Fold these 4 entries.
Entry 1:
Amino acid sequence: FIRKGYDETKMIDIAKEAGISRTTLNYYYHNKEQLFKPILEHFFLAFFPGAKSAFYDEKRTVIEKIDFLIDWYFIRLIENESLAPFVVIAIQRMPKMIATIAQENILRFSQAILFIRQVEKEMEEGRLKKMDYNTVLITFYSQIVFPFLIRPLMNEVNDQADDQYVDYIET
């Protein structure tokens, strides 16, 4: 799914990659969507440790936590350049599935509630500009994902090797 995208991935491709027959795969997963949900859930939960470690640190300000999270996610996205487009496509194609995964796992994200309260407190104290939480989330995720979506274009426009772009976004 990450390499080919949801639409281009076929059940037979998945079976071959897993080293099993298509019949075996179909026994456990009757269609691609049934298989995609646990993969997406695994991906979603795999990215949570970075957030969890930031949310638990009471000594960090919101800005320090956001800086930490951006760095943490950047490292993962640099390691696998296909992840950012995968995330965007998944969000566009299956927002309901992603929302369901988030709702089903909300107890694992209880630290996020503490972070939200900290954001609200720092806004009230004037250390952060007042804005609604959706604006905070949109800004945060765009800072993480967009640099990786524009990566091929920037390499082409600047006639540079990919490692030069990676060096640039890491600074």
Entry 2:
Amino acid sequence: GGAVTLSVGSGNTGSGGDLSLRAGVTTATDSTGGSVAIESGEGVATSSGMVTIRSANAGTSGVSGKLVFSTGTSKTGNSGALTLGTGAATGGRGGLVGISVGSGTSGAGGMLYLRSGDTTTGAGGALLLSTGAGSTAGGALTLTTSDGGSSGSGAVTMESGAAAAGSSGAV
């Protein structure tokens, strides 16, 4: 099929031009705002197309652009969900989900941060790490630090938080 390209022209002064895609707003009390869908094409006999979302490389100085995947805030009720996953497979393995931090050449390596939500009422959000079920065995769960140089490898620390009243959580 034919290609469609949305592009902003280049310049030589100031910042590059912005490209914004935004769905419509509604003031109706019984309706939701418009949705945005970005989806690759289906390959009826072969693979579907790839979707790539990335920032461009940095120039001779500065950093590459930040990617922000976030839901909006909510005045009443829950905020939206953020789901990262692959589709199911009927004739092969399920897809891979990889989250990694790029390597660097100065200072400490970049941090990978997973944290559940805070609340001012009730219990804080849970964090669940679970492997997949299998017909012969469940998947393995491995927590490991990488090899280190002269200062040793990284530490593995598991601890519960402090309690203002009552017992702290068990490990």
Entry 3:
Amino acid sequence: ARDQLETSIRMFFKEDSPVSVHTLAAAAHEVLWDLAKKNNLRSLLKNNPAIKREKRKEFYKMITEAENFFKHADRDPGNILDFSPKATVYFLVDAIEIFQQLNTGLKLPPIMALMKAWFQLENPDMFVHSPQAVQLKAFCDKIGLKALDRTKFLEWEREFIRMQREELVSS
């Protein structure tokens, strides 16, 4: 699952085929989620307590629609899916969170930390500002790196690893 997740993140940053990225990210998420369930861990997508019990089935169907469509085309070959690649980001971030829960004490692999950092930069109003997030934003502003420049994020992976080692960004 780790390899699938890291590969799907790299594909995401390279802006490879959105369908391929989503399929691989969803597969990694599914494996991690299967392991998480056995350990009574949480997933924001699969067992989020904030979703009303009576709405969970509907929510789950909605978030797995693309995954199932891409995996099981034989079920309804004439069907057309209005796919939004934005959903992939949530699978990636949730898979990273599950990975962290399963590997407590292990430093987050750099590509996963980079994805989390990108997600924070892309969605600044969603998060509490930590000193690391402020430092990361200042670094990105200094070099002119914007969240919209996904392909450039991989170019800065080594610098990000250095910052992570020096605990300038969280993992």
Entry 4:
Amino acid sequence: FLDCPLLSQVTFGSGVTTIGTYAFYECISLKKINIPNKLTTISDYAFSRSGLEELNIPENVTSIGAHAFEECLSLKTVTIGKGQKSLGDYSFTLSPNLIRMNFLGNYQDTYISLFAFGDGNNPNLKFYRYPTRAGWPPVGNGIIFYAYEGELFVPILLIDTVSKGLRTFGF
């Protein structure tokens, strides 16, 4: 469906486990998707430049590829389920209307790649994490995440422990 500007709805089969590279690239009329229960991987550029407005990534998805949701100009809110293990380079960059990123699980084993959330080009983005029954989940290793607030570059989340690599970060 690469560069299919009139595609407005997608129904995934129940057995789909991977959304391939460039699968819905530049599908600007695609506003909403329902990710199937068995999906584990969203590949590089899968929804880049699409018209998605809100995104709920369930816990069964463990990998989001590089640039997977890059330049989604209508994207406002993203919720990432507790199964996430890897966020690729620039996976949510250049999405200027993205204002809320919700983390639902324990991210001590999550590998967050280079500029996963942009390099200062998501100026209104705020991060939220939610408590589990065991309390607030650890999300990192003594790193302060930054985002723009007006013209200020401010810390928004102090993270605690990450066991896998954490490369250079920018927002």
